[in-house]
Amino acid sequence: MNESSLPSLWVALVHYPVINKRGDTIASAITNLDLHDIARAGRTYGVRGFFVVTPVADQHALAKEIIGHWTDGHGAAYNPDRRDALSEIRVVDAISDAAAAVEALAGSRPETVATCARYCRGAVSHAAFSRMVRAGRPYLMLFGTAWGLSKGVIEGADHVLAPIRGDTDYNHLSVRSAVSILLDRLLGRRETA
Length: 193
Description:
By secondary structure, this protein is of the alpha/beta class. The chain has one domain (3-187): SPOUT methyltransferase, trefoil knot domain (Alpha/beta knot, 3-Layer(aba) Sandwich). It is 42% helix and 16% strand. The protein contains eight helices and eight strands. The chain has helices at 32-45, 57-71, 74-78, 80-86, 95-106, 126-134, 151-156, 175-187, and strands at residues 9-14, 18-19, 25-26, 49-53, 89-92, 111-114, 139-144, 159-160. The strands form two sheets. A six-stranded parallel β-sheet has the order 5-4-1-7-6-8, sandwiched between helices. A two-stranded antiparallel ribbon has the order 2-3. Strand 6, helix 6 and strand 7 (139-144) form a beta-alpha-beta unit. The longest helix is centred in the N-terminal third of the chain and has 15 residues, at 57-71. The chain starts with 8 loop residues before the first strand and ends in a 6-residue tail after the last helix.
C-alpha cells in the first residue's frame, strides 16, 4: 500500500488521563503486549501512525526500550515484520502532542475521536466513521487504558465513537482487542459471498 492510499487515521493509546475503577483520574502503565499488538494491527490496516501517550518519564523509557529492541536491537533482525510495525510508534507526553504531530504530517489539524465502552449521546456509528475516514480528512482516534479515557478527554473530543457491542451484556475488552475490532470495522475489506 503506498502512502497516498493509506487512510487518514492515526491511533493514540492514552495512558493519561484515564480513570481507574473508582473513576479517579490516573496514569496507567504501558504494557508490552499493547505496544506489539496495536502496532501490528495498525500496520495491517494501514493506519498512518501509532502514538503512546504518557507524561511519566519511566514509562517513556520502558516504551523506548521495548520499541528499540524490535527496531534497532536483536529483534529487528530476528523479526523484520515486527520491526516494520513497531517503527510506527511514537511516544509523546500528551494527546495535544500527538495531535500536533499529526497536523505536521497531514497539513491540517486532525479531528479527535474518543472511544468508550459506554454509549455517549451523539456517538458516531462505526459505518459513519468509516466513511468519514475514507473521505481523507485526518483523524486521531483515542483509546484509553485502565478503565477508559477520562471524562474531560471524552467531552473534549470532536467525536465519540459508538461502543463495540457483542450479543451479551458483558463489555470489558482489552484495549488491544478493541483497537483490532474497530480497525477491522472501519478499514477492513469485506468479502462478498
